[in-house]
Amino acid sequence: MELNQTTFASTLENLKETARLQGNMLTTEQIDEAFAEWNLQDEQKQLILEYLKNNKVGIDEPGDVDDNLSGEDVNFLGMYLEDLKELPNVSDGEKRAVKMSALAGDADAKNKLVEIFLPEVVEISKLYAGQGALVEDLIGEGNVAIAMAVTMLDCVENIDEIDGFVTKMIMDSMEEYIGENSDSKQVDEIVLNKVNDVNDKAKELYDNLLRKVTVKEVADELGATSDEVREAVKFSASNIDYIEDAETDEAD
Asked: Is 43 helix (H, G, I), strand (E, B) or coil?
């Protein structure tokens, strides 16, 4: 199956989302399965692994989400976690009882359920740190999401579904906030557009010259540098077939 740049970028984003749901981790098997239809070479697979690791995704083990935190994030979390220590400890049995009462509509139990999920918001916020939004803001969005979630428990059928329902609402709220307030999405689109521009220009030259073209030839046509073209080829997992080996092509 031919690997086009749009599908490639979309698959990577889906893998990153799966990683967040799994504690910022992916298994090698999951990555292989995601790209199984394209029969990637070892070098291409290595590029994918490097990309995921650069995005703090652990391979076969949890990634260190604390690496995503800025100094401002660390300072805020230090104070916020101290405040959370004031909350009473709740056993697993007590949590289950609270969930049952909240599901039955008890207002006090719903308020207690909000408190129970506050530490979970902190951990989830770390997964989204470093994407153009402060952890303080992400936690604020997550806390609002919990308050909304406990008023919507009629959407779940039993108490075993509550954790997943609330967690999804927390994650959705943070993703929406990042999408609206950070430039990460714009950066991804810019990179993807560059890949498509390089691919289209390389194909045009290939059709005219009836041979594979060099990185420099594409760069000259686009008014770009050879390094920019190589970066585009790398992001495409070296899947732009109309260009000679970008790794061995001479620099400007």
From this structure: helix
Cα Dmax for the chain: 74
Contact 148, 198 (CB under 8 A): no
Going from the C-alpha of 240 to that of each of 131, 184, 244, the distances in angstroms are: 28, 25, 9
Specify the amino acid at residue 175: E
Other Cβ atoms less than 10 A from the Cβ of 125: the count is 29
Residues 80-119 pLDDT 10s: 999 999 998 899 999 999 999 999 999 999 999 999 999 9
Q: Which two tokens stand for residue 120?
A: 């979970």
Domain 185-235 has CATH 3.30.1890: no
Domain ranges of the chain: 5-63, 66-181, 185-235
Please enumerate in sequence order all residues whose Cβ is within 8 A of that of 14, keeping only pairs 6 or more positions apart, or say none.
Answer: 34
pLDDT in tens, 178-214: 877 765 555 566 667 778 888 888 888 888 888 888 9
CATH code at 66-181:
1.20.120.1810
